[in-house]
Design goal:
It holds the Pfam family PfkB. InterPro entries: Carboh/pur_kinase_PfkB_CS (IPR002173), PfkB_dom (IPR011611), Ribokinase-like (IPR029056), Tagatose/fructose_Pkinase (IPR017583). Keywords: ATP-binding, Kinase, Nucleotide-binding, Transferase. The protein is of the alpha/beta class and 321 residues long. It has one domain (4-20, 32-315): UDP-N-acetylmuramoyl-L-alanine:D-glutamate ligase (3-Layer(aba) Sandwich), CATH 3.40.1190. Helices cover 40% and strands 24% of the residues. It has eleven helices and 13 strands. The strands form two sheets. It has a nine-stranded mixed sheet with strand order 5-4-1-8-9-10-11-12-13, with helices on both faces.
């Protein structure tokens, strides 16, 4: 199996708690918080670890929160490569109101990053990548980073002949996609932005996705449809992978778990259909866990079996997005 490298340039300490009734101007009594290592690529490495796969988790970090992030990943026996920064890693907060099962998520913008720090990240990335490796760049950029950072990552991946998987949003996603990727995983809103439209209906989805691929150096497009599954799109085929219905407890980390499942299956040489099915199983499994927890392997395997056994039936059903 080729090496899997995950890249996170804006990691976080994810703190989650619950409260019985959320109301303004009151002192709210929360349960004991849970602290977990967070950020797109870091979540992918955590999910891969749960699935039994190794990865090299590369991220920028500094300050006391950066030290704590390192300790959290070290406790999971995840191989790390830290690019030091002067400013501290951010902290995010998720609060679930158990009175109505509503979750509130507060994401912080991230630290100030100077050019020497992100340039060092690119240098270190180029040093560790080898031909045939899988590179997952996932998550937001820090406020002071160049918007074409993921496009610069693309150039390194192409030079090293590594398979580049990108999962981000906004202009950083657009520039990264235009530079060239192996696999792109936008949701419907992100795909709409990439295609220059406000919204996408189900009937517009396939033609818009095919048009986007015809104009973009991207081999595989996997459009996340949330609880409805995902659409696999290449230049010569489209396939809808439906997700099983489950009781959702939290959607945090579902996208990262999906990416982890896909790169895990890719590294095993699975077909694209199998890759997206396993990704959907991982993403769905993540919604079955509390707070900032990711997918559980036992849930993933059960859900994947359901997806495989019901694939023929689900493809005949009309699913409205």
């Amino acid at each position: 199996m080729k090496k899997i490298v995950t890249l996170t340039v804006n990691p976080a300490i994810d703190k989650s708690t619950t409260v019985n009734g959320l109301k303004p101007h009151s002192k709210l009594r929360c349960t004991q918080p849970v602290y977990e290592a967070g950020g797109g690529g870091i979540n992918v490495s955590r999910a891969l670890n749960e699935l039994g796969a190794e990865s090299l988790c590369m991220y920028m970090a500094g300050g006391p929160t950066g030290d704590r992030l390192h300790d959290l990943l070290n406790d999971l026996d995840i191989t790390q490569q830290v690019v030091p920064t002067a400013d501290s890693v951010r902290e995010n907060l998720a609060v679930t109101d158990i009175a109505n099962n509503q979750q509130y998520r507060f994401g912080m913008p991230g630290p100030k990053i100077n050019p020497s720090e992100w340039e060092n990240t690119l240098r270190q990335l180029g040093a560790v990548l080898a031909e045939g490796d899988f590179l997952v760049a996932s998550g937001s950029l820090c406020p002071d980073m160049p918007i074409d950072f993921y496009a610069r990552v693309s150039k390194i991946a192409q030079k090293k002949k590594a398979k580049y998987i990108l999962d981000t949003s906004g202009e950083a996603l657009l520039k990264g996609a235009q530079a060239g990727v192996f696999l792109l995983k936008p949701n419907l809103g992100e795909l709409a932005a990439l295609c220059g439209v406000d919204t996408i209906s189900f009937h517009e989805l396939e033609p818009l996705a095919q048009t986007f691929l015809s104009k973009t150096p991207c081999e595989v497009l996997v459009v996340s449809l949330g609880a409805k599954g995902a659409l696999l799109v290449t230049k010569d085929r489209t396939e809808l992978i439906a997700a099983p219905i489950v009781h959702q407890k939290s959607t945090i980390g579902a996208g990262d778990s999906m990416v982890a499942g896909m790169v895990y299956a890719l590294a095993q040489g699975k077909s694209l259909t199998e890759v997206v099915r396993y990704g959907v199983a991982c993403g769905t499994a993540a919604t079955m866990t509390e707070g900032t927890q990711l997918c559980k392997r036992e849930d993933v395997e059960q859900l994947n079996k359901w997806i495989v056994s019901n694939a023929a039936t689900m493809q005949k059903m009309e699913i409205t997005v």
